[in-house]
Write a structure and sequence with these properties.
189 residues, alpha+beta, 5-stranded antiparallel β-sheet, 3 helices
């Protein structure tokens, strides 16, 4: 009777060991990937909580096997092997989750900071630059209060038929500048 019960317990223990092996395979795929997504992070948290229940189940079965076994030394060795593998996997999963949390919190901190630094004005283009528009011309050698003010006299198109350069009339004469060195001023109309 006890021999058949022992075989049944060993079979159940094999099923539990296979669950831990599946967890190890899943964990290896995450460890080998560069970055884990939020979905993978949540899935790993769920799997980690489930694997705790698997350990408790293993502990109960292994204790029964050890009491029914005629050679408890081999049963103790099985427990030791399982324990070291299990705790290594749980530690790796915890480390991976902590790294993922740190990365996501650092990314969200950067995102929050960029949102705090966003200006409420000038975040989008108010339209195309037109002839007659009043503009400031950026000059890296001068502070912004000393940049020249002028009116657009002529626009030049690039090869893709998009205006890229403007000729601007200033108090110092006509100057040609690329769009990224021109700051259009809002009109009153």
């Amino acid at each position: 009777m006890s021999e058949s019960k022992l075989k049944d317990l060993v079979k159940k223990r094999g099923s539990i060991k296979s669950k831990v092996t599946q967890f190890a395979s899943y964990l290896n795929t995450l460890v080998n990937s560069d970055n884990i997504s939020e979905l993978q992070h949540k899935e790993l948290e769920c799997r980690l909580s489930k694997i705790d229940a698997v350990y408790n189940e293993f502990d109960v079965l292994q204790t029964e096997i050890e009491t029914l076994s005629e050679s408890p030394e081999s049963a103790f060795l099985d427990r030791e092997t399982f324990d070291s593998n299990y705790f290594r996997l749980v530690s790796e999963a915890s480390i991976l989750l902590n790294q993922s949390r740190r990365r996501s919190s650092a990314a969200s901190d950067d995102e929050r900071i960029s949102l705090l630094q966003t200006k409420t004005k000038w975040t989008h283009s108010s339209g195309k630059l037109e002839v007659g528009s009043l503009v400031l011309m950026k000059d890296r050698s001068q502070p912004p209060l000393l940049w020249l003010v002028g009116r657009v006299v002529k626009l030049y198109q690039g090869g893709d038929s998009v205006n890229r350069v403007a000729e601007i009339k200033t108090k110092r004469g006509n100057i040609v500048r690329v769009y990224n060195n021109i700051c259009p001023l809002p009109s009153l109309s």
